[in-house]
Amino acid sequence: MYRLIRYSQPRATLFRGSAFQNPWTGLESEIDRLFETALADVAAPATPRFPVDLYEDKDNTYVRAELPGVKREDIAVEMVEDYLTINATRKEGEQSFSFSRSITIPESVQADKVSAALENGVLTVTLPKQEQAKPRKIAINVN
């Protein structure tokens, strides 16, 4: 059985007219936060998530998800209102692991033209921007 001992936080000390705080200030609250997070995960484990990158160019927004070992038929990509949801299942022997990730997407996406491709364990979802959302160069007139 582990026992957590709470130490009182030292006050700032004065040195040559300036107040210096102890370098350990805040460590106690950080340790408390880590323990609370760990205990919450044990009580109700969260759905495993996978890394996702978002980036864009002038024509498209891209969502790139790393899904090593997941087959194309075990991936589902859905777009509902402002959310893009990626569900994946990886099978290892008789065990099966499910992953899910939902991402808020901008309203300026052409929903009917969204596409997805899987290459070397990396899923790339392409979200084309609507015409009015694309940047336009504006000419400046000389008076």
Runs with pLDDT <50, length 5+? Answer: 12-18
Number of domains: 2
Q: Determine and state the CATH class of the largest domain.
A: Mainly Beta
Q: Helix- and strand-based class?
A: mainly beta
Overall geometric form:
flat
What is the chains' assembly state? single chain
Kindly state the percentage of residues in helix: 10-25%
**Which band does the percent of strand residues land in?**
35-45%
The largest β sheet comes out as: 4 strands, antiparallel
The name of the CATH topology of the largest domain is Immunoglobulin-like
Number of helices: 1
Which short descriptors sum up this protein?
Immunoglobulin-like; 12% helix; 39% strand; 2 domains; mainly beta; 1 helix; 143 residues
Describe the structure.
By secondary structure, the protein is mainly beta. It has one helix and nine strands. A four-stranded antiparallel beta sheet has the order 3-4-9-8, with no helix packed on it. The chain has a three-stranded antiparallel beta sheet with strand order 5-6-7, with no helix packed on it. The longest helix has 17 residues, at 27-43.
SSE arrangement:
Blueprint: E1 13-15, E2 18-20, H1 27-43, E3 52-56, E4 60-66, E5 75-80, E6 83-92, E7 95-104, E8 115-119, E9 122-128
Antiparallel strand pairs: 1-2, 3-4, 4-9, 5-6, 6-7, 8-9
Task: Briefly characterize the structure.
This protein has one helix at 27-43, and strands at residues 13-15, 18-20, 52-56, 60-66, 75-80, 83-92, 95-104, 115-119, 122-128. By secondary structure, the protein is mainly beta.
